[in-house]
Structure prediction request, 532 residues.
Amino acid sequence: MMAAEPKVETLVISVDPSAGETNLPWAGTVDHHQQMDLVMEVLVDIEPTSNVWVPELAKSWEMSPDATEWTFQLEEGIQWHNGWGEFTADDVFHSVAMNQRDDAILAYATDWRQIDLDASTKVSDHEVVLKLKNPNPDYLFYIAPSGGGLMMSKAHYDSGGDAAYEEDMIGTGPYRYTGREFGVNVNFERLDDHWRRGGIDGLPPPSFEKVDLRWIREVASRNAGLIAEEIHLTELTRDLADAAVADHGMKIIQSNFPGNQLNGIFQGLHPAEVGNFDPPFQDPSLPYTDVRVREAINRALDRETIKNTLFSGRVTTSPQIGYYSNLPGWDPRWLDDFEENYGYDPERARELLAEAGYPDGFEVRGILMNIFGFPESVDLVQTMQVQLREVGIDLKLEEWEFSNYFAAWTGKDPDSFGLWVGSPSYKTVFAQLSLFNRSSGAIHLYETQVLDDLFDKLSKSADLNERDQIQREMGNILYDEYAYMPFFYIFIEFVANPNIIDNWEFPGSDGANYGHFDLITACLTEDPCYGD
Prediction:
């Protein structure tokens, strides 16, 4: 039998708060946008079942032949929450300016600054032309949620600046923000007359009247809350997820596409100053500035064991970070030769360390922290510690809060130098290279003079074939120089109470790793909704 209504008024979602708590879209990595997902909309969305760009606040767009101008036709009559007026071109320019702020720590702030606001044009209240300083055929990535493209109300900001935004989150989305308790939760309430989710010409209204997004750092606590039915949807490690399914009748909901690439990072392989590669890396004393050491570390990692234990086999090999076989720049040799070049071989690892002058190994810092969207982060670093010890490398673990580490990392603080594991979300190849592999970017991973020169050439090209070639050349450098410790492509998994939740279609490529919370549908049958 069908239930007349959802079985709960308030949907309770619990996630790790490591991405940071704030109402300011520019005041964190894009990961923190999950707390704004229900309230704020974008010009261009990501369709969750096809992973392609689709209209949202912009009903259409056009790129100029030289890829330096993007023209957007805006929806008309869209109202900001709480009486802040109509969404117009002025709000688009305001939102760009907020992401360009000098104090913006949005991961893609550098790329948002590629929009030349002085040269951009307001054609009318509902048509804008954004002029880029350099051509970029991939710029829709930034306009969409993947790149942090949340639209913000100019009228609301003009009423009180940052303080107005901190007090109240205003958007055009299907839910209204109703408040937060820092360290505890954020609350939202459905708007039944929403322009896109009102059920007249578009999608039906979201299932749940209210949403309670709770911050719980410890995965064991989230698991306990789920089993006690105090939480309806949460992220767990794969072993706990499997136990929740087998022992408590829960179910796993997975992103429609791979959402993350897990990779180990050699932090500190960048210059101290933008463009100054003398010395090549900020701290020449780091053992892993030697490519032989980086190869040795890769050879010491037993990826197959990690795959089958920490991830229950539900991952696939990712031979190159930031690249995908369906995107420009891919080279099939990376996967074909991965076992030959990166395969588990502790004996060869010891030989390489001896060749590099470390026959007895060395000690190096290991960064241990919870990472939003990646519940196995601590377990994986601890596993690396055990495996590296077998070849003589002593990984000394230090516990960090992600927000503190992010500040140290972006500030090139030597205290952040060491080995850690990241989970960058699905990106266009250009966005990945721009974010991590040029010395003038906001976030620094592996940067060299050759990569800087190639990225400069890439950023000035509108020719798709040339961009494909340059991106592949940069990828080959990263692969051959063992710039990272690549692990896996991974789908994002949530565990749901099937008595409360029927389904959730989300692509996994939202900048916050997951979004489209308004598409979570309620179970309307007396029996649990396990799907087909």
